[in-house]
Structures are given as C-alpha cells and as structure tokens.
Amino acid sequence: MSATRRMAVGVARAWTHLYTSRMPTELRVSRREEIDSDLWEHVRDGRETGTRPLITALEILSRTCLGVVDDLTWRFEASRQERAVSHSAWRLHMDTSARKTRWVSIFAVATGATVILLFGLVPTLKVYFESVGIPLPLPTRLVMGLSTIVMAYWWATLVVGVALLLGLTRLTRVSVLHDGEVDRAREVALTKFEPIVIVGLSVVVGAMVLAMFLPIFDVVSAMR
Q: Which residues touch 127 (CB under 8 Å, ≥6 apart)?
C-alpha cells in the first residue's frame, strides 16, 4: 500500500477509534471491524480499477469527513440505547428484589405465626384443657393433632419449609422470554396472586387460633 493510502486509512481508523472510545466492547469492536472492512474494500477496488493512490486517499478522506455527522449520530443513538437497556435491567432487578422481599416477608410472618401457634400456644392450651377436663370440639382436636405431628417430625417440617422457601424464591423471579422481553402475563398473574396468598395464609392461621379457643368460648357461654 502506498504512503498516501496508508495515511488516509490511518486517519479514518483514528477517527473511528476516537468516536467509538468508551463504548461497550461489543459495539466498539463491531463498528471498528465494519469500518476496517469498508476501508479494505475501498483500497482493493482502487487497485483493481487502476485508480491512482492519491485519488483513492482523497476519496477515503472525503468519505471520512462527510461521514462525521453520521458517525456522531451513531454514537449518540448507540449510547442512548445502551442507557435504556441498563435502566431497564436496573428496574428489572429492583422489581425482582422488591417482590422477593414482599413474598419472603409474607412467608416469614406466616411461618413464625404457625411455629408460635403449634409449638407454643397449642401445647399450653392442650395441657390446660386436659387438666380441667373441658370437652374439645373437632376443630380443636384437629389442630392439636397437627401440633403433635409437627413437633414429633420437626425435621420433616423444616425440610418442607426450606423447600417452600426455595420454590417461592423461584416463583417470584422475573421471567424473561426468548426475545429478551419480560413475561408481562406472568407479572400480572403474580401481582394478582399476592393478595390471595396473604388472605389465604391469614385465614388458615386465624382458623387455627380460633379452633384452639373454641372450648373456652363454649365454657364461657355455658356459664352465662
């Protein structure tokens, strides 16, 4: 390659390296390779057509100068898209973290209430009921039986709890489709399902507490 051609190619490459600097690696490398390929084809075509090296060099320099606006526009658009992708990724991460925090909090509160009920309240009331000989209704006997099973097989209860927690973490993770878009239908379903879970857990725990106090209510009603 002649000195004039090398000079023109060097200028074009230097400009390309300048306006692609600090861009993401994939964009930077692909853009530079694209320009290098165009320069190589331009020089090859000049040789094949017998164009003088000076003319080829002037053509390359003119293309470089005339393309400055397009190059800067490309840089601006690529940077804007990169910021948009980064912002979307950040929002996706924040949404996932917030949902996991809510669901884990719900699970922790429900688990804590159940543990206090089955390992603390139920055995205490069971001893009291047996000492005073109060007749126990079916719901109370069912809750007391559940407490006995859970306390006897506490290790199995722990395994089930860990499995539920892991499943909950996987369930609340944001789902991304093959095209990179978030599965909005799944997001809407999880959002609607959340209050149902809260109400359901509240009803279950509340029903167990009520079942344990039913005998006391019956005694108080009989004394009136």
A: none
